[in-house]
UniProtKB/TrEMBL annotation:
SUPFAM superfamilies: PRTase-like. GO terms for molecular function: guanine phosphoribosyltransferase activity; hypoxanthine phosphoribosyltransferase activity; magnesium ion binding; nucleotide binding. Belongs to the purine/pyrimidine phosphoribosyltransferase family. It catalyses: GMP + diphosphate = guanine + 5-phospho-alpha-D-ribose 1-diphosphate; IMP + diphosphate = hypoxanthine + 5-phospho-alpha-D-ribose 1-diphosphate. Pathway: Purine metabolism; IMP biosynthesis via salvage pathway; IMP from hypoxanthine: step 1/1. It is an enzyme of class 2 (transferase). It is found in: Cytoplasm. InterPro entries: HGPRT, Hxn_phspho_trans, PRTase-like, PRTase_dom. One of its GO terms (biological process) is IMP salvage. This is Hypoxanthine phosphoribosyltransferase. Pfam families: Pribosyltran (PF00156).
Length: 178
């Protein structure tokens, strides 16, 4: 199995791009059925979700818009448990169907914060799509409407996800070797 090194850590290939792409196609199919008459605003949570948002949006066949927010909580391989908003939204949220796009829901702290912030603006509906989901790490109580792939509770990089800023450019996903 292919191995790579980023900074001081070794990682092994765990999810090839073909599998990622297939999971995104399934999310897109579901959205094409459920959201085609909703004129949704996709809200991409930066940085990690840029690749997922870009690949997903190309597979959507209905009118939709996208905007970007940046929250951050991770340093190295650990969550700081403290989510801060860095870049806010400029689009009108009130009365609209909002679909939050995340690369990963891990502990769930970030998505909880994003949902809290966005619900303040009275959207018509607030939906969540995450490329990856770690059920063993998740401590939240929200429903994730669109999930790509459920993964074990190990630190991963690639396809937008980073280890201290590195590895986002990898097309496949790699798991840390302990
Ligand atoms: O469910 P959680 O435990 O909160 O983890 C998920 C969040 O962590 C990552 O963001 P990060 O804060 O690392 O910022 P980044 O996207 O800029 O890498 C990821 O993009 C999610 O937003
Ligand atoms: O496993 C992960 N890898 C990179 N970033 C993350 N943010 C939450 N979980 C992770």
């Amino acid at each position: 199995m292919k191995r790579i090194k980023l900074l001081d850590r070794e990682f092994k290939l765990s999810i090839p791009f073909e599998q990622i792409d297939g999971a995104i196609a399934k999310i897109a199919d579901k959205m094409n059925k459920e959201l085609s008459d909703k004129d949704p605003l996709l809200v991409c949570v930066l940085n990690g979700s840029f690749m997922f948002a870009s690949d997903l949006m190309r597979k959507l066949d209905f009118p939709c818009q996208i905007s970007f927010v940046k929250f951050s909580s991770y340093r190295g391989t650990e969550t700081t448990g403290n989510v801060k908003e860095i870049i806010g939204l400029t689009e009108k949220i009130e009365g609209r169907t909002i679909v939050i796009l995340e690369d990963i829901i891990d502990t769930g702290i970030t998505i909880q914060k994003v949902l809290e912030e966005l619900s303040e603006f009275n959207p018509k509906a607030l939906k969540v799509a995450s490329m990856l989901f770690k059920p063993e790490a998740f401590t939240g109580d929200i429903e994730v409407d669109y999930v790509g792939i459920e993964i074990p509770n190990d630190f991963i990089v690639g396809y937008g996800l980073d280890y201290d800023g590195y590895g986002r450019n990898l097309p496949d996903i790699y798991t840390v070797v302990e």
